[in-house]
Amino acid sequence: MYVAGGKNMKLRWLLLLTLVVLAGCAGFNNQSKIEDKIETEIEEPKIDYTTLSDPELIAELELREIEVDSLFSVIDTLYTTIDSLYYEVEILNNSLDDAKRQIPANIEFVIPDTITFAGRLVDLRSERIRAKFEKIFARETKHAYKVIPRSGKYFALFDSIFTEAGVPVDAKYLAVAESHLSNLASSPVGAVGIWQVMPKTGKSLGLRIDSFVDESRDVFKATVFAAKFLNQNYKYLERKGAADWLLAMAAYNAGPGSVARVVREQGAADFFEIILRVEETNDYVWRAIALKMIFQNEAKVFEKTFSKEPPITESCRVEHLNLKGHYKLDDWARAQGTTIGVLWELNPWIKISKQKRKRYTAINNVVLPPGDFDVLVPNDAKPDEVLLAKVLKRFKAKNAGYYTYHIVKRGDTLYDIARKYNTSVSSLKSLNNKRSNTIRVGQKLKLYSGSYGDNDGEGYHTVRRGETLSKIADKYRMSLTRLKNINKLKNNMIYPGQKLYLSSGTTSNYSGSMEKGTEYHVVKKGETLSHIADKYIIPVRNLQAVNNLKGTNIFPGQKIYLGTKNTTKPGTVRSSVTEANYHVIKRGETLSHVADKYLIPVAELKRINSLKSNMVHPGQKIYLSNAKSDVANSHIVRSGESISSIAKKYGVSVVSIITKNNLKKRNGDVIIHPNQKLIF
């Protein structure tokens, strides 16, 4: 019965496939209806193998599943075909629109007899050369009016990089010929970006090209690549006796070896004296010369001038990112005062990462891997320094971002690994492009970190009022023991606002990414967060930040992390004030970093330094007390005064008073006495 049913189902799929093909050829307007029909009617058979015992039947079922997968593969191919046809129609429509909007060239414009290009005087009086040039000039004029405005965005950058590299600045017109100044341009042979970089050549000259990043589309790094490649071509041809920048530019298109071979065979060393084998390569340089003439004579060629886009260096700022793991940039973009869409538009070198959730459905994310990156952000975007500090702190955690990894050990199976990381075998196979269940010892398997279930999107769950540890374990389909082990819990007691991590790959973020050798205090019955803060001379706000506490609720037995060893033990304090009584901001530091380092609340730092916002800049002096000069203030202790009341009175920190006066502690209290002189 099953076999017959399988044949009927197969025929049904084939019929639907035929409908898809016919619909794709007959009219594209029905595509969405067909997609809906396929997604609602074609469902992958759900078979419970645990109820089957006949080996032959199980083998037959597995064979049918393979057939189902192959049919879905055919459907994917057909969708790709339909998409490509849509793309062709869109191109034709755009061409039609361009023809309607095309700005006609001035037919009375006379091409001059000469033009200077890359330091060479180009003579256009030869009948053969002029006929060729006029043809290329007319062809380039049809599209140049669309590119001239874009030149304002990039030409200043090109001029700067080429001048520094010792390359003729006229080489910038090669980018116009290559891509019409589009970072999204690509060619059938695999060249991409504004400079149409081939992957192999790009990697050989230092560009990073992998599954997350393609620096061929980074206009800054790709232009540096172009300068290196042109210089390399020139030096290579110079050694062959053909020191000619025009030949070096031809080699950018055809390769230096090809040009050198023609030079050797024809016995010439000048671009105008040789006949290049490939017409495209020869035209390539002439196109650049024609484009320079058009750009420099736009008012005469089009009888009007075009407004230019502002230089990219003026419309954007560069923000440096240092990542220890794979991270989505959504929160960082928001913290910078912009959106992820705008961010990707400005940085097309970041590849879109597609996360499959189910068949035909993908979630597109902007993800960066571990490393250092310079990201363009709009100049008018105003950053939220508080949010930015939190995001940057999160980025410092290793392997705790968008992706995490599992190294296969002896005895591991895909089923065991899927269960360990709270995912499915099919998801593991899809993410790692695996067709079978075979894995090998030492293999690196990629997993989504924090992408399963309602886990706040970062691999953890924030405890809500009324929740129990057992309910949370059930929610994420994991054992209670495993959840406790991951979070180093000795009992089942949890509290609202607490973060519970869901996989071992994310525990490096635990308790505020504490350093190795972290000190902590175990809460005793009757203690409050304020008592602990006073005991260790640490502001309550710092304890909340380090322990990810939203309020002041704590419970007996809870570990409250304080800082690293030898910095916050009772009876000792962290050295918080330099001799100059200020801290100089370093690159990448925020006001929050300074507050944490010197155990001074952010609000107090802002008041001391008369800051209206949390924004600081490298080289800025941040004073740590009101004493902003070498002349120390002092106070004579009166009866009944405490160190905290004195600190509050003079607007300084308790820690700075203790440090400057070498005060001691007894039974957790700082010792001061009437008539004692305190300096600060």
Structure description:
The structure is a single chain. The radius of gyration is 34 Å and the shape is extended. Helices cover 45% and strands 12% of the residues. The protein has a three-stranded antiparallel β-sheet with strand order 4-6-5. Strands 1-2 form a two-stranded antiparallel ribbon. Strands 3-7 form a two-stranded antiparallel sheet. It has 680 residues and is of the alpha+beta class. The protein starts with a helix and ends with a strand.
Shape: extended
Q: Uncertain segments of ≥5 residues (pLDDT<50)?
A: 1-7, 20-44, 450-458, 505-518, 564-580, 627-632
C-alpha-based Rg, rounded: 34 Å
Number of helices: 26
Distance between the termini: 91 Å
Question: What proportion strand?
Answer: 5-15%
Structural class: alpha+beta
| Strands, total number | 19
Question: How do the strands of the widest beta sheet line up side by side?
Answer: 4-6-5
What's the rounded overall pLDDT mean?
77
Q: How many strands, which pairing sense, and closed or not: the largest β-sheet?
A: 3 strands, antiparallel
Q: Quaternary state, please?
A: single chain
Key features of this structure:
680 residues; alpha+beta; two-stranded antiparallel ribbon; 12% strand; extended
